[in-house]
Amino acid sequence: TNATPEALEKVLCDTNGYFLAASSEKGLINSLMGITYGKKHCNHDMLLNGRDGGNVNVERANRKSYYGSVVGSVVEFAQKGTILKIVSTSDNIGLAERFCFVSEPDNIGRRDHTKNHAFDAAILEINNKRTQFFKRLVGLKNLNAHSPELDHQNRVKLILSQKSWQTIYHFENEFEKQLTVNGYLSHPIFKGMVSKIRMQVMSIACNLYILDLDNPPLANKDPTTLVPDEYVSTAIQMLRCLIYHHREFLETYGLISTKQQIKVAYQFFLNSKDTEWLSMQQLKKGLEQVNPFKLLEHPRIAIENTIFYLANNNVLLANSNCTEFKRNPKPFVFL
User: Fold this and answer.
1) Which long-range contacts link 7-13 to residues 24+ away (Cβ below 8 Å)?
2) Can you give the pLDDT at residue 146?
3) Average pLDDT of each block of 10 consecutive residues along the chain (335 residues)?
4) Is the bond preceding residue 292 a cis peptide, omega within 30 degrees?
5) What is the DSSP letter of 93?
6) How far is CA 250 from CA 121, 205, 259, 263, in A?
7) β-strand partners of 316
8) Rounded Cα distance, 77 and 90, in Å
9) Taking a C-beta distance cutoff of 8 angstroms, is the pair 239, 201 a contact?
10) 278 with 269: CB under 8 angstroms?
11) Could you give the 3-state DSSP secondary structure of residue 317?
12) d(CA 162, CA 168)
């Protein structure tokens, strides 16, 4: 439920590269992504490779090291701020794009605390039935790196049909058109997400398929198993909703919105003297490492466009050459 990247590396030596990090508190993400002890010390190799079974070869002078295939997942049930934290600290290295983000509406302000809310017994029974396979695996005793259950050669190979692959290709094309400059998904965050579409669709489809089986395939009996096309179609529908909702979520919380760029740029002037003129170079240098600009692929261009927008709307005053700017003392309100 909580681990640093360094501690995770050590654990992999005992599990032959398998791991599951799950928690209902955001402390897991803070530790696992190295946020608690400074971003410059982050080591994301295990998380980046674990998502799709990649290989690592870790060498450390003062601790046990692991080399081989990494297979692992991170599951976090926490507040919406956790999503923002993952996105803002990922630095476009591909880590945030490996997560599936789900942010459901809450009932705060509409709850009736005088009523008891019982769990649906039918749903609980379905959940219990579908997780028996995983409970049996987790409950195995005396597992170690040499146990047959953890041998990577004993993994079941789940494959997709040619029809499913064609459906995925068309799904990628659907988003490709929206990645162009000024497109709905032109932000670098979504370029990374779209590049991971195949990984996400395969992962969701395979999990849905496994959870739907009473007896999941075993390596010694079903070394290669075809995932039915309908699970791929369902995975695509889910991922489409997730991507569009993620865009709306990040815009609502100011990580990608133009409105947030305007607010941040104007705040920069509020923090300076009223009579002080600031050059475009000063503004670019001061704002390019601040959210939401630092998340952009070309932050300086966005800063320049934002400053000119404020000047054209008389929020800022510009000199005759439009190379220096200062705050207009006339009050205004952001809408």
Assistant:
1) 8/32, 8/46, 9/43, 9/46, 9/58, 9/60, 9/63, 9/64, 9/65, 9/66, 10/63, 10/64, 10/66, 12/46, 12/66, 12/70, 13/64, 13/65, 13/66, 13/145
2) 74
3) 84 88 86 69 79 82 80 86 82 82 83 83 83 69 72 85 97 90 78 90 93 76 87 96 88 75 90 84 92 80 88 89 88 60
4) yes
5) S
6) 35, 26, 12, 16
7) 327
8) 19
9) yes
10) yes
11) strand
12) 10
Question: Which DSSP string corresponds to 23-44?
Answer: ESSTHHHHHHTTGGG-GGG---
What does the pLDDT read at residue 167? 97
pLDDT at residue number 279: 93
Instruction: Report how far apart, in Å, the C-alpha atoms of 147 and of each of 11, 142, 216 are.
Output: 15, 8, 20
Task: Specify the pLDDT at position 260.
Answer: 81
Q: Quick check: 309 and 262 in contact, CB under 8 A?
A: yes
Q: Which two tokens stand for residue 176?
A: 């490709």
Instruction: Enter the tokens of residue 203.
Output: 């992962």
